[in-house]
Design brief:
This protein is of the alpha/beta class and 242 residues long. The protein is 31% helix and 26% strand. A hairpin with a 5-residue loop joins β3 and β4.
């Protein structure tokens, strides 16, 4: 499989680009790529470019950009994941798999049972880390558009301004199933999932008051990172591009 590399720059056919430090290190030191190898470049604006590695030195890789390829793999279903922040690798996993499954955006949320506490400075650093997870997932999965992720915020603050065609919140205590819904494949869907420990009764009531429909994924209790993957896959299967 040809290596795919994201570059936040203008990409032009029949030109040469100097890759950024991270991409250069990844190609030269991690993948041990060689001059003459094929690569694919994309900048998040849609489509991608075929290229060939033309030069490698200690810190920099240059790529000759060849041809633009009008390739798109985005789902028509506009899914946004509103995720209660979980600890460390669990949140990383949730974000990575959500991107692979086609979400358009991710909203990290602090809630009552959220065990992660972040200052503004730490939130900004964590956001940068999550963005790197998103870019890596796009490179791996073939996506050419970078999903948005917003600054972490409080659940109640976010609920006061949320709007979508369908607002869904997972709950193991209701009977309503996804197969009973009719969701057009062009709809905007917000999927709210609590952190480890779930949403409190008060938070669930607030979500319902704001128009969220409680949804049951089945008789088994899923971990928060499992619930996100299962729910997004089910949405894409019933209403999207799976």
């Amino acid at each position: 499989m040809t290596t795919r590399i994201y570059q936040a720059n203008a990409l032009i056919e029949d030109s040469t680009i100097e890759l950024d430090e991270f991409a250069s290190h990844h190609l030269a030191r991690v993948l041990r790529a060689s001059v003459g190898e094929d690569v694919v470049l994309f900048n998040g604006e849609g489509g991608e470019y075929s290229g060939i590695i033309s030069q490698i030195n200690k810190k920099t890789v240059w790529v000759d950009i060849k041809k633009y390829i009008a390739r798109e793999v985005e789902s028509s279903l506009d899914i946004w994941l509103a995720q209660g922040i979980s600890r460390g690798e669990k949140m990383d996993y949730t974000i990575q798999k959500a991107v692979e499954l086609g979400v358009k955006g991710i909203i990290p949320l602090f809630s009552k049972r959220c065990s992660v506490k972040l200052s503004v400075e730490r939130s900004e650093k964590r956001l940068q880390h999550w963005r790197s997870i998103i870019i890596g997932a796009c490179e791996q999965s073939g996506r050419n558009r970078i999903p948005e992720i917003i600054m972490p915020q409080m659940l109640d603050q976010w609920l006061s301004q949320v709007a979508a065609d369908f607002c869904l919140v997972l709950s193991p205590h209701v009977e309503h199933k996804l197969k009973k819904l009719t969701i057009p494949n062009s709809a905007r869907v917000i999927l709210l999932i609590g952190p480890e420990g779930g949403l409190s009764n008060q938070e669930m009531a607030q979500a319902v008051q704001r128009g969220f429909l409680p949804l049951n994924l089945g008789p088994r209790i899923l971990r928060t990172e499992t619930a996100a993957v299962a729910a997004i896959a089910a949405l894409q299967s019933y209403c999207g591009d799976m």
